[in-house]
Amino acid sequence: MTLSIPEAGKRRGGRFGYRVNAVGVIAFLVILAWAAVAVLAPVIAPHPVGEIVDFDFFGPVSAAYPLGTDYLGRDVLSRIVYGARYTVGISLAAVTIACVLGVALGMTAAVVGGWFDAALSRLFDALTSIPNKILALVLVAAVGSSIPILILTLAFIYVPGSYRFARSLSVNVNAMDYVTVARARGERLGYLIRAEILPGILGPVLADVGLRFVFIVLLLSSLSFLGLGVQPPDADWGALVKENIGGLSFAAPAVIFPSVAIASLTISVNLLIDNLPRRIRDRSAEA
After folding, report:
1. Domain harbouring 259, CATH code
2. Where in or outside the cell is it found (predicted)?
């Protein structure tokens, strides 16, 4: 008896516990490629980041300069490759700090409850009421725009959202019978959070991490576009768009390709996240 393609796919899904989705795989490969570019930038980039290689500004795409040149005659490909280190690196560091801190506080508040939960929730609600871009502009303008300050600022802005998301999930898990039994056994707070609450919310939390990574990339690009992000001669992708905006009227590659880089990374993360719940639903249906 032969299996049809859908039936064969279901069998594979049941055997390995997940379906391989072509869109998700392509998105993952794009993300992996940008991560590799960020790590290997000094090896991949054909020219130093600030070297002027062409006397013609906003040069066209050519064999010597595959992505053209910018407003000073610098190689756009090299600038984008080095810019990946700042865009991916700063965003990854910021989302890690924000989500680790937010999730830890959210789970703790849900388990402890009482005044601790109420005070922490009201504090983060107040911070959430401030628009992200305004808060980022105020903090960066007041303190400075060094890379550590950018990371801490972006993390600080997205901790409240991560906290609220993790707390809402943890409150539901905390009401489960197995958590009540663990509490009746006299388990400590650390055990309840680590062994009982975290496994129950890990999947949605990982999806939330991906979404916040996208938000941070876009906010970092906005700050750089306004001149408050990574400072020259270094530049992230948002700064590349800003410094070459004069070439927008005649569609200079120096404006187009950094924008494409931002779009490819953020869209790929979104597509990868969109496919995670689909695999979970497929597994539930097969069961």
Report:
1. 1.10.3720.10
2. Cell membrane
Three state DSSP letters for 22-62: HHHHHHHHHHHHHHHHHHCHHHHCCCCCCCECCCCCCCCCC
pLDDT value, residue 92: 93
CB 271 within 8 A of CB 23: yes
- Cα–Cα–Cα angle for 208, 209, 215, rounded to 5 degrees: 90
Rounded-to-integer distance, Cα 205 and Cα 154, Å: 18
* Count: domains in the chain: 1
For the whole model, what pTM was predicted? Answer: 0.83
Q: What is the extent of the structural domain holding 155?
A: 10-286
For 45-93, write each residue's pLDDT tens digit.
998 888 888 887 888 888 888 998 888 889 999 999 999 999 999 999 9
What tokens does 136 get? Answer: 């980022």
Task: Give the contacts of 108 (CB within 8 A, at least 6 positions apart).
Answer: 116, 189, 193
Query: In which residue are the tokens 């056994």 written?
Result: 185
In the DSSP assignment, the letter for residue 67 is T
Strand partners, 69: 75
